[in-house]
Amino acid sequence: MGLAQKKMQTYSSPAIETTKSPIQQPSQRPSRKLFSKGEKFLFMVFGAVVIAFSVMILHTQAQINDTNKEVQLINKQIEETTKQNTELSFQVSEKSTYEVIWEKAKALGLDLNEKNVKVVSGQ
Asked: N or C: which end of the chain has fewer CB within 10 A?
C-alpha cells in the first residue's frame, strides 16, 4: 500500500499557485454630461418659441377661416338682394306701362280730359 500511495503522489500534479492580484475596480471616470445646463436652457427656449409660433399660426388661420365664412355669407346676401332688386325692377316696368296706369285710373273713377293734360319735358 505504501507503494501505491507513493505512485499517486508522484503522478499527481503539483499544486498550481495562483497569484491573486487585487481586483481592479473600474476607475471612476468623470461622467461627461450629454448636454450642459446652458444647452438645456437653449433647447427649452427653442421649444417654447416653436410652440408659441405654432399657436400663433393656428390662431391666425382660425381668424382667416372665420373672416372667409363672413365674406361668403355677405356675398350670398348680396346675391339675394340683387335678385330681389331685379325682380322689383321688372315689376315696376310692368306696372308703369300706359295701359296699366290707365286701367287703374278708370277703376278709381278718373277720365281723360285733353284740356288738363300738360306735357312735361324730360331732363
From this structure: C
